[in-house]
Write a structure and sequence with these properties.
This protein folds into three domains: about 130 residues, Beta-Lactamase; about 70 residues; about 150 residues, Heat Shock Protein 90. It contains twelve helices and twelve strands. The longest helix is centred in the middle third of the chain and has 36 residues. By secondary structure, the chain is an alpha+beta fold. The structure holds adenosine-5'-diphosphate (ADP).
């Protein structure tokens, strides 16, 4: 097959490509103009150069009222000053993308929640040419989230009373208050009691989660000796670990300073990580807790020699209700709420949480806590 090529002169090329380029550009412009998310393009000082239709639909301000003004001034400025300083620092000085949520106000005075993503567009020298801000109105989504949290809180409160009553009556029966029991009866009651305890734990976890999500979790921070707190857990873990012939090693740095934390919540963090390490490790393995100071933070690591977590699942592991596929096979019992709660507690306490893991080699869950 042969084709004849005409010599490509500049004008020739321009004639052939420009209608196409123009058509493409029109397509992009139309797409941006009619997108359902609010899209704003600003100059390097944040002055609005372009706003698509959704901006007026969401904020209520027509283009004539916002062109040439600073982005966000008309519909934003409802949150603490530091929030906007941080945003500006990120995009302008560090030239990084920003992702966050804002409480904004429409022209008619109605408040709304916007999920915002702002990106700097840089020239070849790395200088900011424009900022592109995309916002989505998530008011209804957040309202549904709030209602779900409220429902969980209500349901858990209602479930706690009958579960506590059952616990009380079971203890009476097991103590022989109503007469002697046969071995079979005692064993059965112990099983019922263990199931009841699991339900109480789950309900308490749900309550803590609903408190965190609604911002009602009260952190009762007091100066705490972490060494004492961690070593005190050994006794509680013993029955679980003995059942799997596992060993617990505690390696705490000398002279650890006291930290101002909520001991009940942080204890819950260690217990969650340790019971997970027991659950997701084979018989006769060792679990090690390291605690040391680094750069003004107390770092704790719970390391196991267990099943590990596949790389594809690692990013989801702290999500609510998430359980790794291999874990579900190895350990049917579980809610997928523990790590979500642990991470929320750590972040509410001013720390961060991270994970290192290799399938078949074990996992290390670490968190930092500020020494205040
Ligand atoms: P649960 O243990 O009730 O499933 P968690 O939120 O505590 O819920 O843990 C979520 C998931 O993370 C678990 O289902 C499991 O897949 C994984 N996981 C947690 N800890 C470990 C660990 N030490 N080793 C391997 N996988 C773990």
């Amino acid at each position: 097959m042969s084709t004849t090529h005409k010599p490509q002169t500049k004008t020739n090329r321009a004639k052939r490509s420009s209608p196409l380029v123009q058509e493409d550009m029109q397509k992009y412009q139309l797409a941006v103009e009619h997108a359902s998310d609010h899209i704003v393009i600003t100059d390097p000082d944040g002055i609005i150069l372009y706003a698509n239709r959704a901006v007026e639909k969401i904020t209520g301000f027509p283009p004539s009222e916002i062109m040439g003004t600073k982005a966000g001034v008309k519909w934003g400025k409802r949150m603490k000053h530091e929030v906007y300083t941080h945003l500006w620092n990120e995009i302008k000085h560090h030239r990084r993308h920003f992702h966050g949520e804002f409480q904004n106000v429409r022209k008619n005075g109605e408040m709304y929640t916007a999920e915002a993503k702002i990106a700097p567009v840089l020239d070849a020298q790395g200088e900011v040419l424009y900022f592109v801000g995309i916002e989505r109105d998530v008011t209804q989504l957040r309202e549904v989230d709030r209602m779900k949290t409220e429902f969980i809180s209500l349901a858990s409160h209602q479930l706690r009373t009958p579960l506590s009553a059952m616990k009380w009556f079971l203890e009476m029966l097991l103590d022989g208050d109503l007469g002697d029991l046969s071995t079979e009866q005692t064993n059965m009651l112990r099983n019922i009691n263990a199931s009841n305890e699991r339900m109480i734990d789950l309900v308490n976890t749900l309550l803590d989660i609903s408190r965190i999500e609604s911002g009602r979790l009260v952190i009762d921070a007091v100066p705490t000796d972490i060494t004492e707190l961690v070593t005190g857990l050994r006794h509680e873990l013993e029955p679980l670990m003995q059942a799997k012939n596992q060993t617990l090693t505690i390696a705490i740095a000398d002279n650890l300073p006291q930290v101002t934390i909520d001991p009940r919540l942080i204890r819950q963090v260690y217990m969650n990580l340790l019971t997970n390490a027991v659950k997701y490790s084979a018989y006769s393995t060792t679990i090690t807790v390291y605690v040391f100071v680094k750069e003004g933070m107390i770092i704790s690591t719970v390391q196991d020699q267990g099943y590990g977590i596949d790389v594809s699942e690692r990013e989801h592991i702290f999500e609510k209700f998430y359980r790794a596929k291999s874990a579900v096979k190895a350990e049917a019992e579980g809610s997928g709420l523990g790590l979500y709660l642990v991470k929320s507690i750590i972040e509410t306490s001013g720390g961060t949480m991270w994970l290192e893991s290799e399938p078949g080699q074990g996992s290390s869950f670490s968190f930092s806590l500020p020494i205040r």
